[in-house]
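note to self: dont lose this again. the chain is below, predicted strucutre after it. 66 aa total, dont forget to put it in the shared folder this time
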Amino acid sequence: MLSISDLLQLGGYTAVEYCGGPSMIFRMGRKDIETEGEASNALAVVDAAHENSVIESKINMMGLSP
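---
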């Protein structure tokens, strides 16, 4: 069965190949987040990573190294 996660990955592979990038082997089997708790945990990780990248870019703009 093709999950939404698999579909997103397939779209990425297709876009890369369409733009002249390398051909990649697509493997199915990713699982979608099933419960609300899992979804909020996944979003917290993404938010933390984004916040860190914003802070790092501000440090770089000031001419400092992390």
